[in-house]
Amino acid sequence: MASPSRSLQATALSMTCLSIGHTIGGRQWTADPIYGAITGSKPWALGIVGWYQGSAFFLMSGFLHYQWASNPRLLQQPTNKAIAIIMNGMLWASSAWYFRHGIKENGWVVGFGAALQAWAVVRAWVKY
């Protein structure tokens, strides 16, 4: 078995922190009076469930990166490579979306997570 990957451990921690921050952010934007005007509607229901699905995605990603950190050779498998690539694409797309809509703090944080994830995964591909 390969030695643990510190870069993937860092990515696992960053994804877990993103999950917590994402959840806190959801509580902040749902407190906006404009958002309160649609409470109980279909857009409100979809927005709430979608936001918390995003938080769960980050948490799940943290667990997955922790597993990869424990055995970086898992990233040599085609399925794990595909998961890593799709995940990275989602992170970059989300970062771009935030920037496009003027939510710069989220754009920077998610973009940093995307860069860290890309660096850690590529490093595992080359090293292991």
Describe this structure in words.
By secondary structure, the chain is an all-alpha fold. It has one domain (6-127). It is 81% helix and 0% strand. It has helices spanning 6-29, 33-36, 42-70, 78-100, 104-127. α1 runs antiparallel to α3 (42-70), α1 (6-29) packs antiparallel against α5 and α4 runs antiparallel to α5. The radius of gyration is 16 Å and the shape is elongated. It comes from Aspergillus ellipticus CBS 707.79. Keywords: Membrane, Transmembrane, Transmembrane helix.
* Biggest β-sheet description: none
Oligomer: single chain
N-end to C-end Cα span: 10 Å
- What count of domains describes the coordinates? 1
Radius of gyration: 16 Å
Query: What is the averaged pLDDT score?
Result: 94
Low-confidence stretches: none
Structural class: mainly alpha
| Annotation field: number of helices | 5
Helical content, roughly? over 70%
> Which series of helices and strands comes N to C?
HHHHH
Spatial shape:
elongated
- Estimated share of beta-strand residues: under 5%
Number of strands: 0
Transmembrane segments: 49-69, 81-100, 106-126
Organism: Aspergillus ellipticus CBS 707.79
Keywords: Membrane, Transmembrane, Transmembrane helix
Protein name: Integral membrane protein
